Backbone:
């Protein structure tokens, strides 16, 4: 794996995986653009998720709901009231921080001193400390001054404002009239689109419990401090499943999904020992959650950080959005909802009683997945020649380019024509992107394809077209296939090439 985030950032830009957003005008913080190779990698990861979670299961449906969201959806979901992070300003440096990030970056003892001043007994429990600070922001600001909380930017003690909650949703005007009621939001998660379509999907597919709805799409959060490359950004993609189960079977399904998701990440090249499962402590749980497992991948420079959350959301979501809440025996505490137009419940076949399903939600970040896969694939090797080789050892199904077809002489029509035909034939196999590549010399091409993780390079030469130097046609219609990982080269007959590659790129 990569040792530092910097080496990934630099490779990603150099080779065309990921660029800073709005780069031409100095960049837009918290946004990134996926370049020619990045878009392939990202699409491949999403396709692998869709395949495993929709096509290969018999209890799942797909969905693509809109990004622009009615404000009532995000009112009843609880986001308007609680989807906020505590924000704090340094009056001297004018820098702004997320409170928990600021506290995490202090020297040992500093956060403990603040905790002591506020009467928090477990000083190491960051969320308890944040909660205590937000309960008494004025007094906390004094305590932070006394404890000499420093500004991570310059290391000097700051003059801290009382911290305040900051809602992370992007609010936007919808339609030409900007009045009181004409606002909506860019969704902060894809999940709500699934909940509000629960009845539509149920009615149109005749599904019964247990079943799930899967969705991949963009989400937007106005993060106070976007940072760490594509790990924390303001516009990102999620791959989310809402899996609906009968209350009472939720704990068992929660465990099953934990296993399924670990197995899937392993198939994407992330070994189990690189992922810690955090059983989120009660006091850190989101308002909707009965229990949550966070999958923490060991990112370069950052260490173990969340790549996916798998939450047992109880009957909170459907219970929040349903009409007729009073008759439904909800277990979660929800806001009264006089606006909903549908009953989001199912009927027990025996007792005929209506009940609201529980929800298990595996929610993964596409961008954090791309970053993890990129980092895990990154390999630096010392060759016998003493040279250093950088190679991205992606699983073949994730590699942005599957095969590069390289003519050995680029001015020789017989060879380039042959190579182009070969490229077209291989492209037709549906393996993913096959690249015709006639830039630079063969050594450089191999080097470049190692660095972008192309599993196979196929070269077309004089032997291929029956013009070997020794005058023989023994090697006619054969090509050289070079393996990215072993660097071994093999002569393969063109008529066997499709089968050869299909077998190895599975
Ligand atoms: P964090 O604690 O890191 O802010 P979160 O717990 O708020 O994340 P969730 O609300 O559980 O995240 O979102 C589900 C997934 O979406 C996360 O596991 C992560 O992969 C992804 N995600 C969330 N916020 C961001 C972001 N700002 N940038 C990139 N991915 C994100």
Residues:
């Amino acid at each position: 794996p990569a040792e530092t985030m910097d080496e990934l950032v630099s490779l990603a830009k150099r080779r065309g995986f990921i660029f800073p957003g709005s780069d031409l005008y100095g960049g837009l913080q918290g946004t990134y653009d996926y370049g020619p190779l990045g878009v392939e990698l990202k699409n491949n990861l999403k396709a692998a998720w869709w395949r495993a979670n929709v096509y290969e299961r018999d209890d799942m449906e797909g969905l693509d709901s809109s990004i622009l969201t009615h404000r009532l959806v995000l009112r009843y979901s609880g986001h308007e009231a609680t989807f906020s992070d505590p924000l704090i300003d340094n009056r001297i440096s004018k820098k702004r921080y997320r409170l928990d990030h600021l506290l995490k970056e202090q020297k040992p003892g500093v956060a403990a001193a603040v905790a002591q001043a506020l009467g928090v007994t477990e000083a190491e429990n960051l969320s308890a400390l944040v909660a205590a600070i937000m309960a008494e922001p004025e007094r906390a600001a004094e305590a932070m001054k006394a404890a000499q909380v420093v500004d991570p930017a310059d290391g000097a003690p700051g003059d801290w404002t009382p911290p305040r909650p900051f809602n992370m949703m992007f609010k936007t005007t919808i339609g030409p009239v900007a009045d009181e009621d004409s606002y909506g939001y860019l969704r902060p998660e894809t999940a709500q689109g699934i909940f509000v379509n629960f009845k539509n999907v149920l009615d149109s597919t005749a599904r019964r419990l247990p079943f799930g709805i899967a969705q991949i799409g963009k989400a937007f959060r106005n993060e106070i401090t976007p940072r760490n490359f594509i790990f924390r950004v303001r516009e990102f993609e999620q791959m989310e499943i809402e899996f609906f189960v009968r209350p009472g079977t939720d704990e068992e399904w929660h465990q099953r999904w934990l296993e399924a998701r670990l197995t899937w990440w392993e198939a994407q090249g992330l070994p189990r020992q690189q992922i810690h499962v955090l059983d989120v402590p009660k006091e850190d749980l989101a308002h909707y959650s009965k229990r949550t497992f966070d999958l923490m991948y060991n990112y370069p420079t950052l260490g173990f950080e969340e790549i996916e959350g798998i939450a047992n959301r109880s009957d909170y979501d459907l219970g929040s959005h349903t009409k007729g809440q009073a008759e439904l025996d909800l277990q979660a505490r929800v806001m009264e909802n006089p606006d909903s137009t549908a009953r989001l419940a199912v009927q027990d076949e025996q007792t005929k009683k209506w009940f609201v399903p529980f929800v298990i939600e595996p929610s993964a970040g596409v961008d954090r997945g791309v970053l993890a896969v990129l980092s895990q694939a990154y390999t630096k090797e010392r060759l016998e020649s003493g040279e250093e080789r950088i190679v991205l050892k992606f699983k073949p199904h994730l590699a942005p380019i599957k095969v590069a077809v390289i003519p050995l002489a680029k001015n020789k029509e017989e060879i380039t024509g042959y190579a182009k035909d070969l490229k077209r034939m291989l492209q037709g196999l549906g393996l993913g992107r096959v690249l015709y590549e006639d830039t630079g010399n063969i050594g450089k091409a191999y080097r470049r394809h190692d660095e972008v993780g192309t599993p196979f390079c196929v070269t077309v030469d004089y032997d291929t077209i029956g013009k070997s130097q020794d005058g023989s046609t023994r090697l006619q219609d054969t090509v050289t296939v070079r393996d990215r990982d072993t660097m071994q080269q093999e002569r393969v007959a063109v008529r066997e090439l499709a089968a050869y590659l299909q077998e190895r790129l599975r």
Observations:
- The radius of gyration is 27 Å.
- The mean pLDDT is 96.
- The longest strand covers residues 235-245.
